Amino acid sequence: MTYETVIPKGSLILVTGANGYIGSHVAEQLIIAGYKVRGTSRSEDKARHIAEILERRNGKGTFEWSVVPDMAVPGAYDAAMKGCAGVAHVATSIFPSPDPNETVPHVVNGTLGIMRSAKAHASIKRFVLTSSSLAAVHPTPNTEFEVTGDSWNEYDPKHAWAPPPYTPDRTLLVYGASKVAGEEAAWKFMKEEKPQFEFNAVLPNFNVGEKLHPMQSSSVASVEGLYKGNERLIEVLRNFTPQYFIDVKDDARLHVAGLTHGDVVNERIFGFAEPWSYQKWVDTWIKIDPSRAGTFPPALNQDQDLSTYPPTKRSVELLGRLGQDGWTSMEDSTRQLLKSMS
Prior knowledge:
This protein is of the alpha/beta class. Helix content is 43%, strand content 14%. The strands form two sheets. A seven-stranded parallel β-sheet has the order 3-2-1-4-5-6-9, with helices on both faces. It has a three-stranded mixed β-sheet with strand order 7-8-10.
């Protein structure tokens, strides 16, 4: 299928949180697609480190960096935005708080702040927000249901904003509520402010795959911890509600499509490759390394994610445009993780 590219090759794209697990891959996939990237980080050390890695992998002059210590400060991204043609807003709140009054406003203010900055820069043609699967759905095992582009997670905000005390078991609910609120605020901004740029949101689930540097951590940490025998991280994975996985490079490719493909406008792009469970990760690691058979703790239950996602047909189409034939499999993604761990 032919498609128009709305941002010319060689243009400069801003990627926030470019030192992070997902952000670094978004930056690299944009470079591979022919763009230059300006990445932001909260600290100079982290920014320099990812810049060195990306330039070593992709060549000099493909990546530059800018430090943004606090994304929620008004005008935080004004300087970093100059000269850019598009924005991938991957960075999010770093507050692991069970109090929604701390986390949710920080995410919303950060999202609206950078969108206001983008509106003030006439050069910005596209804006992609890294949302989350949690913006659309609360993981519910052993129940068949369908998630569409109109689905929103009502469970997490309801329980996150329940009266105090804000106990630690609410932390993930608050995180989910923040992703709902952040994406809702973005769509409201587009409707009411009518900026010059076009907008898409990418909703990825559990990211796994190659790490660009050893200190990167995200959902992938628990899968890595399972292989390494980290008892704390193994317990995290054993107790995690089964969901879907996506290879981090596929996630990044969906961001590229949302930023550059002319017919991808006002879309929620779903990043759900295949369902996973703790036992499936164990089986995958044993298939990759048979010597590990019998070394993993047993699963706590047989829960499965039975939900379906018709919008992923569109995601697979977008991946195909970028040279990726369907989703990267869980096994292949895990192999890439292992290679980057060694």
